[in-house]
Write a structure and sequence with these properties.
Layout (H helix, E strand, L loop, with lengths): L1 H11 L15 E2 H12 L3 H13 L14 E3 L10 H4 L13 E2 L8 H12 L6 H29 L12 H4 L8 H4 L25 H16 L4 H7 L4 E2 L1 H20 L3 H17 L4 E2 L4 E2 L1 E3 L5 E2 L9 H4 L6 H10 L26 H13 L3 H18 L4 E2 L6 E2 L5 H12 L1
Antiparallel strand pairs: 1-2, 2-3, 4-7, 5-6, 7-8, 9-10
Helix pairs in contact: 1-17, 2-3, 2-5, 2-17, 3-6, 5-6, 5-11, 6-11, 11-12, 15-16
The structure holds (2R)-2,3-dihydroxypropanoic acid.
C-alpha cells in the first residue's frame, strides 16, 4: 500500500503543488496542502517543503487582510470546479497586488505551523542526514514570518476584541463544509437567487455531496464577501453567518503553540510573545464552548451566543489543542457506537448521515489529529485504537476522500491526496 499511496501523490502532483484529486478538486487547497506535505515528507523532503512554498505564494500582503491565506489557490485555470476564481472576485483586492496566483476569499483551518514543526523535527531528527536537516532549517526560516503573519491575520481580523475565540464567516472556511453543526446559523442566511452551475455532481454521486439548498447559501455568502470588498471590519459587522467553530479554534490553538515553539527556537522573541498571549486568552475562553450534554466542546453561534449542540469530531480535537479536560471518556463512547469510527458527526445525533460528506463520514486526517492529541494526553492505548480503526478503513476503502463509518466503504473522490499522505505519515511514525 505504501507504493500505492506514493503513486497517488505523484499522480496528483502538478509540478510543485498537489491537487486533492483530479477533476473534483483541480487546484491547491489550504489545509489539504499541509496534510499532503506530511506525506511527501516521508519520501521526498524537498518536494514536501515545495508544497508549502506554493501555498504561501498566494498569501495576501499589506492592506487590512495582510497575512490572509486562502482556502483555494487557483494556480492554473480549470473548468471542472465551481466556484472558480471569477466567482470569488478577489482580483485587485487590497493585499493581492504582489501575489502570483488567484485565490478564493475565505480561509481554512490553519494547520500549517503544526505541520511545519513536525516536518522540521522529522527532517532534523537523529535518522536524517545533514543535507535534509539543512534543507529543513532553511525552509523553516523562510516560512516562519509567513506563518506569523497568517496567525496574526486570524487574531486581528477575526477576534479584534481579544475575546480568545476567533470567528468563522463561511462554512467552507471550517473545512467541514456541510456539518449539521452549521444548520441552525445557516438557516438565517438567504439562499441565492442567481443562476450557477455546480460541477461536483459530475464527479461524485449526489448522495455523498452537500444539498442544493446548502450550495445556494454558500454562493450567497461568497457573493456577500465580495460585496463587502473582503473588508474584515465590515464582515464582522454585517455577515449573516458568524460562528465560533471549535474545529478552527482547536487547530489554531495547537498551531499557535507550535508556532511559539518555532519562534522561540529561531529567535523571533517578540512574535513568540505576541502569539503566546493569544494562546492564553483562548485557553480560558474555550470553557464557554463546553457542552454538558455531550461531554465535549461544541461550536457556538456568534450571532445569538447559543451553543450549537451538535457533537462533531472537531470537538474531539480538545486534547490536540491542549485544552485541559480529559478527552478519553468521550472518545471511548464514540468508538463504542460506530464500527469504523470516528465519524465526523456522532451517530446518535439527529443530523448524522453516514454517506454525506461532513455529516457523518470518517475523515482520516481528522482521526490522525485526534489520535495525536490522545497520545499527547497520555491515552496511548486509545490513540492506538483510533489508528487501528483507520487502518481497517485504508484496507477496505482504499485511499478515498472519506468513508462510511457503518460499513467502512470508501466514499467521495478516489485516489485522494490527504488520505494517502495520512497513511504515509502514520506508517512512518
Ligand atoms: C468543496 O468544493 O466541496 C470544497 O470542500 C470547498 O472547499
Amino acid at each position: 500500500m505504501q507504493e500505492q499511496a506514493r503513486a497517488i501523490l505523484r499522480h496528483n502532483d502538478r509540478g510543485g503543488y498537489t491537487v486533492p484529486t483530479a477533476g473534483l478538486y483541480p487546484f491547491q487547497w489550504n489545509w489539504d496542502a499541509s496534510v499532503t506535505a506530511l506525506g511527501w515528507m516521508t519520501f521526498d523532503p524537498a518536494r514536501a517543503w515545495e508544497e508549502l512554498r506554493w501555498l504561501f505564494k498566494g498569501q495576501w500582503r499589506g492592506g487590512p487582510n495582510d497575512g490572509f491565506l486562502a482556502q483555494i489557490h487557483f494556480h492554473v485555470p480549470s473548468d471542472t470546479y465551481f466556484p472558480g476564481p471569477d466567482e470569488w472576485g478577489t482580483d485587485g483586492a487590497s493585499g493581492t497586488e504582489q501575489i502570483g496566483t488567484r485565490t478564493s476569499s475565505i480561509s481554512q483551518p490553519p494547520l500549517h505551523a503544526s505541520i511545519v514543526r513536525w516536518m522540521w523535527e522529522r527532517g532534523t531528527g537523529p535518522d536524517q542526514d545533514a543535507a535534509v536537516g539543512g534543507l529543513c532549517e532553511s525552509a523553516v526560516r523562510e516560512l516562519l514570518p509567513r506563518l506569523v503573519a497568517h496567525h496574526l491575520w486570524w487574531y486581528r481580523t477575526r477576534d479584534p476584541q481579544r475575546t480568545g475565540l476567533v470567528v468563522n464567516i463561511h462554512p467552507w472556511e471550517s473545512g467541514m463544509d456541510n456539518s449539521p453543526a452549521w444548520d441552525a446559523p445557516l438557516s438565517r442566511v438567504p439562499r441565492t437567487t442567481r443562476p450557477y452551475e455546480r460541477r461536483d455532481l459530475g464527479h461524485v454521486d449526489a448522495s455523498m455531496r452537500p444539498s442544493r439548498e446548502f450550495y445556494d447559501r454558500m454562493v450567497y455568502l461568497m457573493d456577500f464577501n465580495r460585496a463587502q470588498r473582503f473588508e474584515p471590519e465590515a464582515l464582522l459587522r454585517l455577515c449573516p453567518y458568524q460562528v465560533h467553530d471549535i474545529g478552527i479554534i482547536s487547530i489554531l490553538q495547537r498551531a499557535s503553540r507550535d508556532l511559539v515553539h518555532l519562534c522561540q527556537t529561531f529567535g523571533l522573541v517578540a512574535e513568540a510573545a505576541q502569539i503566546a498571549a493569544r494562546v492564553e486568552l483562548t485557553q480560558r475562553a474555550v470553557q464557554a464552548l463546553w457542552s454538558d450534554r455531550w461531554q465535549q466542546y461544541v461550536s457556538r453561534d456568534a450571532g445569538t451566543g447559543e451553543l450549537l449542540e451538535v457533537p462533531c469530531s472537531a470537538g474531539l480535537l480538545a486534547a490536540y489543542a491542549g485544552f485541559e479536560n480529559d478527552a478519553g471518556p468521550t472518545v471511548r463512547a464514540w468508538l463504542a457506537e460506530t464500527p469504523f469510527g470516528l465519524p465526523s458527526t456522532r451517530s446518535t445525533c439527529s443530523g448524522f448521515e453516514p454517506l454525506r460528506y461532513w455529516r457523518g463520514p470518517v475523515w482520516q486526517h481528522i482521526n490522525m489529529l485526534i489520535a495525536r492529541g490522545l497520545a499527547d494526553q497520555g491515552h496511548g492505548a486509545l490513540a492506538q485504537e483510533v489508528r487501528t480503526r483507520s487502518e481497517q478503513l485504508f484496507a477496505r476503502g482504499g485511499f478515498s476522500e472519506y468513508y462510511d463509518p457503518l460499513s467502512g466503504k470508501g466514499l467521495g473522490g478516489k485516489s485522494f491526496s490527504w488520505t494517502a499522505a495520512t497513511y504515509l505519515h502514520w506508517i512512518a511514525s
